[in-house]
Each structure stands twice: as C-alpha cells, then as structure tokens.
Amino acid sequence: MKNLIVIEGEKDYQFDNMQELVNDFIHSNYNKMSKEEKIKEIEKRAIANTVKENVKIVTIDKEETVSAIGLKNKFVINDEYTYILSMLMYNKFVLLEEINANIFGKYMKQKPKKGNYIILNKFANEVMQKYLEDKRKELNG
User: Fold this and answer.
1) Distance between CA 58 and CA 96 in Å, rounded?
2) How many CA atoms lie within 13 A of 16 on its CB side?
3) Over 33-98, what HEC string results?
4) Confidence (pTM)
5) Tens digits of residue pLDDT in 108-119
6) Which pLDDT value is given to residue 67?
C-alpha cells in the first residue's frame, strides 16, 4: 500500500508522496509553475469546488494568525497543503495517510495508535492550524 490514499466516491487513488497527489489532483505540471501560477491554479480549483458552499476563499499572510481570523467558512489557498486540507475540511474527498508517513500527520498533536492509516478528514482543522502556525514561524524567522 502507498503512503496516501484518496477516496473519491467509488474510486480510490494511491500515492507515495505529496508531489504525486498534487500532480494528480491539482495539475500535472504544478511543480514547474511559478508561485503566481500555482496560486492562480489552486484559486481556480477552489472556486470550482466551493461554488455551492457558503465559504470565503482566503490566503493567510505571515502576520495573521489562524486563531485571529478563524477557519470557519474559509477555504485557505496559501499553497498546495492548505488547498488539500481545505478540500478535506469540506469533505470533497477522503484522504488516508499511512501512520508513519509524516506528510500531514507530522502536524497532528497526537496520532492515533491503532491501525495502519489515519483518516485525515477528522484532523484537517487541527493539521491546518499547526501547518499555518509552523509556516508563519518559518517566514517570520
């Protein structure tokens, strides 16, 4: 089995890493795009995926904190990680991560101790907050 399994309706897709997931679910040339092109691509996809939702598509800059603005009714598109996590928060698909893969799981306070996979949808909000907090610290030095 692979590190990441996406379940979308009746289909499932398996990936070894985040790059494979991004290439399949965002754009096959995503890693060759400029930062601006990447943001435009995920913004376009976010709009398409939230047309029926009552959400605001946002980017959270390095001065903002998640606790200050909250994540309720927000679809965050800072990068591919926040896009995927936002998709999970709105249950657009189910994402399983192998318990020792540490792709999204490394942002969890405490991983489940049973089973081989974590259902990331259950922890998407927590993972998003920790991921953004870590990114903010990284950007602010």
Assistant:
1) 25
2) 0
3) CCHHHHHHHHHHHHHHHHCCCCCEEECCCCCCCHHHHCCCCEEECCCHHHHHHHHHHCCCCEEEEE
4) 0.92
5) 988 777 889 999
6) 67
Single-letter residue type at 137:
K
Q: How many CA atoms lie within 13 A of 105 on its CB side?
A: 19
Model confidence pLDDT, tens digit, residues 53-62? 889 999 887 6
In the chain, how many domains are there? 1
* 118 bridge partner residues: 97
Q: Would you call 124 exposed, middle or buried from its count of C-beta atoms within 10 A (0-12, 13-18, 19+)?
A: buried
Domain assignment of residue 117, given as a range: 4-140
What is the Cα–Cα distance from 47 to 27, expressed in whole angstroms? 15
